[in-house]
Amino acid sequence: MINFKRVGIIDIGSNSIRLVITEETEHGAHHVIDESKDSARLSERIGNDGILKQEDQKVIAQILNYFRKMCEANRTAVIRAVATAAIRNATNSAAILSYIEQETGLTIELLSGEEEARLGFLGMINAIDLEDGFLVDIGGGSTEISLFLNRSLIRSVSFPFGSVNTTKRYSRNGDMNADDIGRIQSMVISALDKQKSWLLNRKGLPLVGLGGTIRSICKLDQRQKRYSLPLTHNYDMDSQSMDHLVQDLSILTVENRKKVEGMSKDRADIIVPGLIILQTIFRYIGSSYYKISGSGLRDGLYYETVFPEQPKITSVLKYSVRNLLALHPSVPVVHVEHINQLALKLFDEMNISHELGVRSRDYLDTASLLYRIGVTVLYYEYAKHTFYLMAHSRIDGLSHREILICAFIASYKNKNRTKKMCLEYKDILTESDFNYIEKLGMLLQLAIALDRSETQPIQALSVFVNKKELGLHLNCSHPPIIELREIQNLQKEFKKTWGLQLILTSTL
Fold it and tell me: Ppx/GppA phosphatase N-terminal domain spans which residues (predicted)?
């Protein structure tokens, strides 16, 4: 691993030019510390002859110089800048790059369509735990489609149409009619037909969407449904919801689209052509549902830059949890690692996966490692802060429902309090989910009690379970005085939850 502390990624896209600055902390975690965006609409600026004029090149250089100064202010060690479809497809692309590099001092990589697809896939697959699917990245000037199986990229293709240049070609200032929509659909189908040998062989796979078009439609869908969790990454949409939104937006003028709650003003004119492209691909390949990814090209570039030898993450969930834990250095790591081991020992010995399912072990694993992150905000009532931080952070590898389950397990105090809080998320959680939360929350409370002093007195734990009792034998390095008292206080509530009487013995 290359030890870059701060990395700036610049993406010169066809619709917008973006900067993301990511920091690696002294504890090994990485997180975004700053970003900026300019809706330059490069695909609109390119003339019919394919030329990007000098004055438009100056606009790019001005934006990049501003980004470079932001990187300098943030003491960024490395800046990696790439250009995609708009410049790739320009007739004078070599002259554009030469001018920009001369004016900014930055080296610009011109990505091919295949490289763009590969990096988008890398960013997505490191953030979503999905085995198989189609990845569709609709940019301003191109659309990439990739097939992945067993979390490996199998094949990809790049088409020279995106939301901006399609709007320019088929729409009158963003307003659409049935004929415009039909022409866009015909264009997309004609392009897809040339790749049908591999696009039509995988019916029923999810379509994972990248880019501003699908992120925007996700936010609109969440607004309409009054979705209770403010996360877009890993959000699922069915085809009916997408079709309704496409239909509703396509009949509106651009000015009326801008008035739609949740609509980005600078995307109102280009969103419908982008959605028609997306919807046509979805129907053509026979996908089952849409999944939104908040990670793509820029994330892929980051991983490739910082981890050049092995940029692909093996376990998305474990990596994400460890990264989130490392972002909270005030957490006593030795203690939470010990709690994690004790909790999983209890889980395995009690054969809980038989009752709650194998996935429930991942929930307990996640919750036990993160249960103390709330102390970063304030020690007092840290469980409340832990819940907020977990529920509003991206825990990659978990669905939105699973993030909430883990957050409630980690912050569990008692049945009534938790049940009341769960009602705020009744659009996401099911009635049966409370069974996970209550049982695993109480099990985590028992594990926490076993190291309440945070001195790890219990060196080995033996577990004996029958229909009426849970026996725990504690092999201790020093007297577990506080631990025994805490467990005693849990006896009654534990029996209510699990139907088991706690029996304790210990040796030094």
Answer: 21-305
